[in-house]
Each structure stands twice: as structure tokens, then as C-alpha cells.
Amino acid sequence: MPVTRVVDHGTAKLLPDVDRDRAWLLTVDGSPQSYVDLDEPTYLEFEYARRLAHALDTAAAPGRPLDVVHLGGGALTLPRYVAATRPGSRQDVVEADRGLLRFVVEKLPLPADSGITVHGTDARAWVEAAPESSADVVVGDVFGGCRVPAHLTSDAYAAAVRRVLRADGCYIANLADGSPFAFLRSQLATFAGAFEELALIAEPGLLRGRRFGNAVLLAGHAPFDLGSLVRRTAADVFPARVVHGDALRKFIGDARAVRDAEAVPSPEPPDGAFSVG
Q: What is the pLDDT of residues 49-58, one digit of tens each?
């Protein structure tokens, strides 16, 4: 049966998947947040989650344990995925909505040996206080409702992420935008000021301006395994393109890095873009 609870920032609902015995969809105020299958944590239903996973899969040699920071908790889908695909990884999950975090951990408990530690606090505050060079990967997947909060879009935030990452580490972020991509272009410009390497994963229709949707940003100092990333995203059930190099610079165009004083949330999605029921 569905389970509903009022959390700190809305009403959370866990909806069972009738086709999978222990799989659940998490929504907050009607917006899908996460999908997780407790029996098969490597099964990823959402397109954006699969693309985040492709980036995680190519961040290091297969199976190598990683130190990962997840900004944004949801149903802990990606942390469970990493625990299954990279046993021995140490993972910190940072979620500002403590009520949501308690709800998820209570109803969808983590295995005792998962290596996942959850923290109920603000993502930027946690990153700014974290030890320098302490993470291999930082995953940014924070949404207030359907929008990325403004304080997680600035050059100061990008600098804080850079400080936490090791020299060969990478930042992977789930963003949302639509044509003319003012927000997405500004985020790429912002992280271009903090990292030498950038790439973008998105569905071709989104890049052509046909719809509003999710795009995954990658930023790092060391070159990405682009060949593997391109193969994985192109062969996915939901094929996507990897944009980098000159094509990405052309996409960014004259966009400027975002300062704290001018930071704004990601745009409001069109009606029905991210909703169920």
C-alpha cells in the first residue's frame, strides 16, 4: 500500500510498483524524486539516474571502492547502486529535509554493511565544512520541489566542491532546463571556471530544444573516460549524447559564471514536466 508522510518541505509519498515486489517510487508534493528496487539496487528506472550511474561507472576502474558524497538523498537510489557495484565504498549522503531522510531510512532501510552514512543538513554547508581532498566523487542531485536551489549554482559553491575533491575526482550533477538553456549554460560556465574538464550528458531532443528535462553535468581536473561514457549512454534504453570539447564550448557561448549575489534557482518546469498522478 502507498505510504504518506508530511516531511519538512512538503508531503512525501512512497508508491509501490505493482510489477516489482519491493520497488518503490518516492514523490514529494506529486513530483517524482526517486525510484528504488530494494531487491535489485542496480535497477534504475529514471533516465537521469541511469546517466548519473554511467558517469559513476566510468569514474574509476570497475568495482574499485570510492569515497562518494551525495548531495541530495531522495530514496538513496544512487548510494545503493554504488554500494552494489563498488563494494567497500564509503558514502556520505547529505539531505536538508530531515523528515524525508527519516521517512526513507525507516520505510526503505539500508543494509547494515552498506557503507552509507546519512546527514540531515544543508548541502553547501556540509561541503564547505568537509575535509579538503576527501572525496573521489561528489554527486549533486538537490532539488527544492522541482528546482535546483540558488545557493548550489554559484562559483563559490563550485569552488567548495573543487576543494573537497581529490586531484583525479569528479563532480556529477543532475540539472534541469529547457531552451534557450540560460540556466544550463550558466552552470557550465560556472564550473568551467573551477575545473579543466567538462562534459554534458543529455537526450538529443532536449539538446534540440524540443522539451524541458534533465541533463547531467560532469566536471573534473583529469580527463574523463569519454569513449566508455559515449558507448554506455548511446546504448542505453534511453539513448543520450555526450557533449564535450568544441561542441560544448559552442553550447556555452557567451554565458558567464554565476556569483552568489546573482544566483537564482533553476527554472520552474512547465506544467506536467515532472509530476505523477
A: 999 999 999 9
Query: The whole model's pTM is what?
Result: 0.95
Task: Give 260-271 pLDDT, tens digit per residue.
Answer: 999 999 999 987
Strand partners, 241: 202
What are the start-end ranges of the H helices in the chain? 47-57, 77-85, 98-107, 123-129, 155-164, 182-192, 204-207, 226-234, 245-252
The class level of CATH for 40-262 reads alpha beta
Residues 6+ apart with CB under 8 A from 227: none
- Render 234-270 in DSSP notation, one character per residue: HTSSS--EEEEHHHHHHHHTT--PPPGGG--PPPPPP
Specify whether the CB–CB gap between 7 and 256 falls below 8 A: no
